[in-house]
Each structure stands twice: as structure tokens, then as C-alpha cells.
Amino acid sequence: MINNIECAVVEHQQAAYENVESLVLLLCKECVAGVDKINLPTSLQTAVKAFIAKYPDFYEVEMVHSLGVMYQDKLLQLTVVGCGEGKECTPANFRKAAGAAVRVLQKQKATTAIVAVPLLLNPTRAHYLQAIAEGLYLGSYTFNECKGASKPATLCKLQITSAVENGRAVLAQAEAIAQGVTLTRNLVNRPGNWVNPVVMAEEARKVAESHGLEFEVLDEKDMAAKGMNAILAVGQGSKNPPRMITLKYNGAGDAPYTAFVGKGITFDSGGISIKPGENMGEMKDDMAGAGAVLGAVQAIAQMKMPCNILAVLSCAENMPGGNAQRPGDVVKAANGKTIEVVNTDAEGRMVLADAVWYACEQGATRVIDIATLTGAVIIALGNETSGIITNTDALADAIKDAGKKAGESFWQLPSLPECKEAIKSDVADLLNSAGRAGGCITGGLFIGEFIKEGVEWAHLDIGGTSTATKTSGFKVKGGTGFGAMTLIRYAGTL
Ligand code: BES
Ligand code: MN
Ligand code: ZN
């Protein structure tokens, strides 16, 4: 059970539709022919056909049409959700449609429902079944933790009609993934006074203990001993001390480790270079990268995927205060490079500098960092697409591809060596901020300066995608969990 939804698979046979409260059909335009083949009782089949004939646009992605029909002397809720036409009929669009469908069921307060999917008559469509289940589990997400008296939620048991081979195993995968993404969303949605770096470490410890992962937390003293002065500088303005958290998942013997490194700023006030007051509260989501890494590694461990993952969560709170770092300060990062802090609000790249170094130090041969790094990525790519900066084009391609399968969009930005000029400092090795021009690129390139020679690296800027302002598809307003599903899919390619 996730987000009050339970999913099971059932064969396309008449018995499946007996005593059903609510019937949802996921239909693309071409699926209409399949309505005759899913063994609906004749009266329902007639009702469905009349219904879709009445709404010629029924197949548009996420389009919802509902109607009450009498069936077996009871009122049955019939809902058709569009999944596209032609080459739109991708798992990604079925995932979105499933998200829209489950919210209709929630509104109906349904306790049982059949999700009828003619497309799943084909036993080879496991990736569609998985996407649909992910959409059902994630579209029903709600965040009520901050409400005083929460009303008891109704559990809804769903049966998905499917002939897909190993359907139950496919559902188990979707469940593990949705659980991971739900963990990410919860961490992102919790306010800054609930989630500080020490709390992040406790959350990570829970994941490590329940899945038998190697676990380590570095406190301020440990970090000082390793020379991690960049993360320490960011954290020193806050009463809540920083933490560098590592989880190690070993699913592939002595194969090399791929590191997932997340920015975990549990609140970003900007520090002394303080942000404007308006919407500052949104910066409680500035740990979304670390949240995505934790959600991903939980799912990967739960599915026992055959890969080796080193997860590093680089956590600090960026606050002004008597001990806060000042603009103009120079700090020496763990790899020996010095950073001139021109803007204390460019803190993400500083905590990641020491974190990606630490991942390399622990032997990772490939590093993917993920961060709500810049507002500039929103100007460049909007709120649906995350930016990639990399030293290995093939890695960016693999991430884009994993993202497509996960229903998350990525786009690689160029990282010309010329752009590195902008982050050179007169007084130190590097500037932590190069101003407005190409902000997403220079932010990424800064992090790349802390990657060991020969290590493949990609930086994912989720500044525009970590939260959503409206509910749609499998996303619910608030924390999206963006990146977790892509990292999981990517791990599947290792
Ligand atoms: N966490 C912010 C980036 C951000 C801002 C993400 C708004 C999503 C929405 C980051 O720490 C930051 O403040 N970045 C600065 C960098 C600048 C000072 C070089 C920015 O983007 O303005
Ligand atoms: Mn900032
Ligand atoms: Zn930040």
C-alpha cells in the first residue's frame, strides 16, 4: 500500500467486473478496438462505446470523462481517461493518465475499482504496466503531515486488467519506485524547522538500517579533519550543524561504484547575501537533490538491483548569523582548491565541491550530482526540464534516456572550456559565482572542478523541477521527487 492505494493485476475476464464500484478505462485512440476484447459484460461494453462515441476527444492525454451507469442494480462510476494517439501512446503518457485517473477515484471516495487497460492484452507490455502502476501510486500522493487533525484516508484497492507476464513482479517494482519517490516528496515538503541536516542523517540511517546498507555520517569535526572547509563554511552560520552522509549499496560484487551526490541545503536563506523575503519559504525545498538520492537508493536496494551505488547527501543549513561566512571570504576545499566566496547564496556548489571530491576519494568511477543549484536553469529550460552539465556526453545521453523512460525531461547544456574563464578568481583559484550569464553552466562547471581526473561526471540542475505549482499527471503540487525515478532507471543500465 502506498498513498492509500493498493494495486493488483487481474486477467481480462468477465468475473473481474463483478461487484465493481468504479470502472476506469485507460484508452488511447487506437485502444478503442480493444474495448471489444477485454471481456466487459455486454451492458457495460455498450455503455462504454456510447460514452466514447459521445466524446470524440476522449483520447487526449489526461482528458477525464466520468458518468454514472446502472449495472447489476447498482450505480457504477464509469471513467475514461485519455492516453493519446499514435506515437503519443508511450508509457510516460499512460503514467500521466493513471495519475489523473486515481485522483478521480479519490474524489469518488471509491474503496475498490477496476482499471481496465486494453493495451495490456499484449503480454510484452511490462513497461506500460509498470508506468501505469507508478502513476496510480504517485498521482494519489498527498502531504498532510503538517495538518493538525488529519482525517482518516480511505484505502482504495485497484485491480488492473493485464495479461503482462510476471505482472506481480512488475507491480512490486513500481511499488518500490513509488515508495522511494514518496520518501523524496515527503522530505521536500517538510518545513525547514522539521528537516535539518541532523534529521536528514536520521532519515538516511533508517533507510540504511532497513535495507542493510553501509552507512556513515561525518559531523563537523570529522569534516574538519578531512579538510572539507567548503561545506563547513556554508554551515557555520546556522545553529544546526552540517552533515556529510554516505550510504553504500553493494549489489554487484566488486564492480566499480557509481556515486549519486545530492545537494541537501535544508533551508537556503541566502546567508549574508540574503534572499528577498518574498517566497523565501520555498527554499525549504533546497534539499531536493539529497532527497532524490535517498529515495533512489532506497528503491534500488529494495529491488536488489545488480549495481553498486555510493550515495552521498551533502547537508547544511544556509543562514546569516554572527558566525556566518562573509562575501569576500576565501576557503580551501578538501581537494586543495581555494574558493573566493563572492556570494553566500551560491552555497550549493560549495557543499557539492567537498561532496563530489569525497565520492571520488571513496573510489567512485562515475559521479552524478543532483541539485536545486540555480534559478538560472528556470530561465534557460523552464519548469519541466532539468539541465545537465557533463564531462562525458555519453553519460548525459544515458541520463536523458533514463529520464524519458521515467517520465522526467533532461537537456544537456554546452560546457565549453571558454566558460570556465568566468569562474576564475584573481585572489583565489575559483569564484563561487560568475553572475547572471549562463548561470546554470558556470554553476555546474564549478562543481566539475572538484571531480578527480578520469572520473565521468554529470551534474543535474533540478532548480526548476523539484517542485510543481499545480497538480497534473503523476505529479502533485509541491515536491515532485524529480530525479529519483531517473536515477533508479539509470541504475538499471549499470
Ligand atoms: N537554491 C538556490 C537556487 C534556486 C533558486 C532554485 C530559486 C530554485 C529556485 C541556490 O542556492 C541559489 O541561491 N542560487 C543562486 C546562485 C547565484 C547567487 C550565483 C541563484 O540562482 O540566484
Ligand atoms: Mn542559494
Ligand atoms: Zn540553494
From the structure provided, what is the oligomeric state, counting identical versus distinct chains? single chain
Radius of gyration: 24 Å
Total domain units:
2
Helix content: 25-40%
User: Runs with pLDDT <50, length 5+?
Assistant: none
Ligands and ions found: ligand BES, manganese (II) ion, zinc ion
- Overall mean pLDDT stands at 97
Shape: elongated
Largest sheet: 8 strands, mixed
Specify the structural class.
alpha/beta
CATH architecture of the largest domain: 3-Layer(aba) Sandwich
Read across the widest sheet, the strand sequence of neighbours is 7-8-10-9-13-17-14-15
Account of the protein in words:
The chain folds into two domains: 5-163, 3-Layer(aba) Sandwich (Leucine Aminopeptidase, subunit E, domain 1); 179-491, 3-Layer(aba) Sandwich (Aminopeptidase), CATH 3.40.630. The chain is elongated. Helix 7 runs antiparallel to helix 9, helix 9 runs parallel beside helix 12 and helix 11 packs across helix 13 (484-491). The mean pLDDT is 97. The protein has an eight-stranded mixed β-sheet with strand order 7-8-10-9-13-17-14-15, sandwiched between helices. It has a six-stranded mixed β-sheet with strand order 1-6-5-2-4-3, with helices on both faces. A three-stranded mixed β-sheet has the order 11-12-16, covered by helices on one side. Helices cover 33% and strands 22% of the residues. With 494 residues, it is of the alpha/beta class. The longest helix is centred in the middle third of the chain and has 23 residues, at 167-189. The protein is built from 13 helices and 19 strands. Strand 3 (64-71) and strand 4 form a beta hairpin. Bound molecules: ligand BES, manganese (II) ion and zinc ion. The site of manganese (II) ion has 4 residues, from loops.
